[in-house]
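Here is an idea for our session: we take a single protein and study its fold together. Start from the sequence, derive the backbone structure tokens from it, and show both lines together. Once you have written the record down, we can walk along the chain together:
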Amino acid sequence: MIRVAKMNTFTQDSQTIRYDRQILIENWNQDKIREGKVIIVGMGALGLVAAVSLAMAGVGELILVDFDTIEISNLNRQLLFRMDDIGKSKVEVAARELLKINSGLKITALNMKIQDVPQTDLESVSVIVEGLDTFIDRRWVNSYIVEHNIPLVSGGMFGFLGNIQVIIPHENACLECQSLIPEEELQKACTPFGEGRKEIRQEEPLEENIPSVSSVSFVIGGLMAQEALKILLKLSPLKDYLFWDGSVGVFTAIELSRRENCFVCSSEYQLNAIPVRSAFDQQINDFVTQLRYSFNLGKEMVMIHGTVKIDSSEEKLSTVLKSADIVRVIDPSLSKPLKFQVTFDS
């Protein structure tokens, strides 16, 4: 972890001159931009474009989060990295280069997974920008921002295709509400793993890489930065899921609606347990499979009743639970446990 802070050495006049073109924009307030605190999760193609745009706009504090290192295959689209940076921490190099662009920034570079970021760094955050390429991390961020009521700007890319979505918790659809969120098995990594990801996933098979090009990252990453700036300025952000097809140069806006029964953001399930039904003679391992497929949970999910962990087995669920009992499920892809109320069919 490295923290880089540079005090603003510019005079008020020079600051006004530096930002005078954007200050001309209607409803622009440079003080709100300067007071903004933005976390950028993922120093890949999208995160770097967004970081550069936000730095140039004068956002007062940026927190960069990524635990990976720079690979040679990153250089075709990750604009702040050079050959001399191969093997180095992405966040540390990005922080160094961003300060060259705007030395008046406060930058915190966190060489870690978003799940490990200290709570002190997440306090008073204005908006989170994520350009992650793994399902488990995107889903965790989505559940975290809903729990802590933090706006999220999310983006993705695949070849000449790209997308962006803004989530304002409890106001519009979260990532879990919409049917466009990929299944865990379908989510691919954007690039071969750097040393950080190799160490964590050394026992897992390498995932297939997805096609990506810098032109798309500039379009989508730029739009992500724009939405973050709009949130800082208290302007109305994007309401739809915006899809970009670069092969034909067309944007498509897809209207999304909140699901009343979304187990991440619905008011009902924030207060009450999610109802699930089970046959009286259903085996525990079958019930675990039912939960996994119904709620897209991972193989590492843990089910707990009271203080007792319920292991998957051929034992009947009714031998460890009675009807209307509450179980909690911990899954690495969610920032907090899910609560289920189990009812047995006669």
